[in-house]
Design a protein that fits this description.
The chain has about 350 residues and is an alpha+beta fold. Helix content is about 15%, strand content about 30%. Pfam families: PrpF. Belongs to the PrpF family.
Length: about 350
């Protein structure tokens, strides 16, 4: 399925080995990793197309299904569960209906989803006329050709601190940053502070080896400050460079996962950016033009924009916290069938 601006394989949990090591070894063979082309599997030779969703009925009374996201590395024999994916999340509700985990409504269906990776929750609402998932529609999202049915994803207030370091600003290697976690640990920085404009193409930024070295060092330090420990072998926290908007949005972004530049922006990463734009005194205020009379924030990225609704409140201690985050995505079923993994361990 395509979910948002990502693509991945969706599995029922019962169809995969319960033992994580066996499951991960199977998924590497299914996706064709490690191989930079993933020529012998389903992967598309890019982190955004080498993703897996594992879905099951939830034992949590506050959720209908559990969703475990797994990032399958392209060129390494590695499967990581240390992050969520808000794009693949867009396909979880339709998949749950397709597989009979949730009964479809006559007009639309709302599926309550527990994201196993972090314990966070989301509700995905999408059209199901006549009790069947409808994928066609008029919703358009940047980074995806054509239109499709809207999937409205709403995130309740998270239980983790919005500012995981406890500070509105931190200084890392001489660079001011704001560390936020609105569903995805994210480090916000001004592009200008790193010697780039923030309007470069993803390829040009990836080829800037000096920039990659600085980003790598900042991410390792930020991971420790955010309570994530050693993040050298993970893709979180995400790093997002901010610049003034150029197409009527609130801010321009370039996001790295961890040093490859995202061709658009992830849903949960955008949620972090939107929250960061609302935090008084954060680094975003030098680059952003957030709307004063609307909760909707337009986040510009290399291939267009993502609109996200964000409202903040304050904790009893006076710290900012996210009250409501919602976004419109689309999803599409591409193929339904049997995958034949390679026969031996790589």
């Amino acid at each position: 399925m395509r979910g948002g601006t990502s693509k991945g394989a969706y599995f029922l949990a019962g169809d995969l080995p319960a033992e994580p090591a066996l499951r991960d070894e199977l998924l590497l063979r299914v996706m064709g990793s490690p191989d930079e082309r993933q020529i012998d599997g389903l992967g598309g030779a890019h982190p955004l197309t080498s993703k897996v969703a594992v879905v099951s009925r939830s034992a949590d009374p506050r959720a209908d299904v559990d969703y475990l996201f797994l990032q399958v590395a392209v060129d390494r024999a590695e499967v990581s569960d240390r992050q969520n994916c808000g794009n693949i999340l867009a396909g979880v509700g339709p998949f749950a209906v397709e597989r009979g985990l949730v009964a479809a409504g006559e007009a639309e269906t709302a599926v309550r989803i527990r994201m196993v990776n972090s314990g966070d929750r989301a509700t995905a609402t999408f059209p199901t006329p006549g009790g069947r998932v409808r994928y066609t529609g008029d919703a358009e999202i940047s980074g995806v050709p054509g239109t499709a049915a809207p999937v409205v994803i709403e995130f309740p207030a998270g239980e983790r601190p919005l500012l995981p370091t406890g500070n509105v600003r931190d200084m890392i290697d001489g660079t001011p940053v704001t560390c936020v976690d609105n569903g995805m640990p994210t480090v916000l920085m001004l592009a200008a502070d790193l010697g780039v404009t923030g309007y470069e193409s993803p390829r040009d930024l990836e080829e800037d080896l000096a920039l990659a070295d600085r980003l790598r060092a900042i991410r390792l330090t930020a991971g420790r400050l955010m309570g994530l420990g050693d993040v050298s072998d993970t893709t979180v926290p995400k790093l997002t460079l901010l610049s003034p908007p150029r197409a009527g949005g609130a801010v321009t972004t370039r996001t790295f996962i961890p040093v490859r530049c995202h061709p658009s922006i992830g849903v949960l990463g955008a949620a972090g950016v939107a929250a960061g734009l609302r935090i008084e005194g954060g680094v975003a205020h030098k680059a952003a033009v957030p709307p004063a009379d609307s909760d909707r924030m337009r986040i510009e990225h290399p291939t267009g924009f993502l609109d996200i609704d964000i409202t903040l409140g304050t904790t009893p201690e006076g710290l900012p916290t996210a009250r409501r985050t919602a976004v419109v995505r689309t999803a599409r079923k591409i193929f339904d069938g049997t995958v034949f993994p390679t026969g031996g361990q790589r």
